[in-house]
Amino acid sequence: MIMKHYSNIFFVTFLCVSIFACARLTTEEKSFWDKAYDSSTKERFIPVELFTGGEWDGKRELILKEVSTSACASFSGKPCDNYYITGPFKTETNNTKIEWAGNEVSYYRRTFSTRRQGKVESFFTINNSRDGLVRIYDKRNRWGARTYSGLGSKFPLGYWKQGEVRSYASRTPTRIEIIELDGPDHCLTFRWVIGLGKEKNSDNNYTFCPDRGFTKISHNS
């Protein structure tokens, strides 16, 4: 009976400590996202983990860390589509114009499926200007497989300000505009435009949230 009594005490104590540790971890992680935004300058550090939905340690560095995550992004109130990110992997050679990468390019593989596009596979890495993630490979039913130079951007990284716009002289010029830098739950919403933005799916707003990744897309054209 005495041993059982002490065993119960030990179990309860262990459970309380475990719950406290988990709660502390959650609080610490939230603190990292709180500190990423400076309300006085309206500037924010955007880590790679906001794109992947992975856990962020608060370090202000741009590194492709190992992940295997899934996100569910909705469009116009419709049921969300699942997006899966794994990696990083490495290319055998560097066929891009990303100079900092050296002979090999580390990248994430993202896949998703929709009724209209079927299965889509894309490779993402940090762009040549090191202020965004860019596609270096994309395969879908609409146009087959394509490769890209790495000079553009598909997702902002590093330090950005509210309302800031940056343009990229890639094969087809692109630009990114910050719509909401630090929204509810520290979600980020930005506008991505390719070319003149007049073609279908060439002028979109995207929303990404901590620990969730991609959550919403809307078309402007």
Give a structural overview.
The protein is an alpha+beta fold. It has one domain. The chain has 2 helices and 15 strands. The chain has helices spanning 2-35, 48-52; strands at 37-38, 43-46, 67-75, 81-90, 106-114, 118-126, 132-140, 144-147, 155-156, 158-161, 165-168, 174-180, 188-194, 203-209, 213-219. Strands 3, 4, 5, 6, 7, 8, 9, 11, 12, 13, 14 and 15 form a 12-stranded mixed sheet that branches. A hairpin with an 8-residue loop joins strand 13 (188-194) and strand 14 (203-209). It starts with a helix and ends with a strand. Mean pLDDT is 87; it is low at 1-25.
Descriptive key words:
globular, 15 strands, three-stranded antiparallel beta sheet, disordered N terminus, single chain, 221 residues
Give a brief outline of the structure.
18% of the residues lie in helices and 43% in strands. It is an alpha+beta fold and 221 residues long. Strand 3 (67-75) and strand 4 (81-90) form a beta hairpin.
The general outline is globular
Mean pLDDT: 87
Give the total of beta strands. 15
Structural class: alpha+beta
User: Secondary-structure element order, as H and E?
Assistant: HEEHEEEEEEEEEEEEE
For the biggest sheet, the summary is:
12 strands, mixed
Query: Cα distance, first to last residue?
Result: 73 Å
Number of helices: 2
Task: Provide the β-strand percentage band.
Answer: 35-45%
| Low-pLDDT residue intervals, each spanning 5 or more residues | 1-25
- Radius of gyration from the CA trace? 20 Å
Helix content: 10-25%
The domain count comes to 1
Work out the oligomeric state of the chains in this entry. single chain
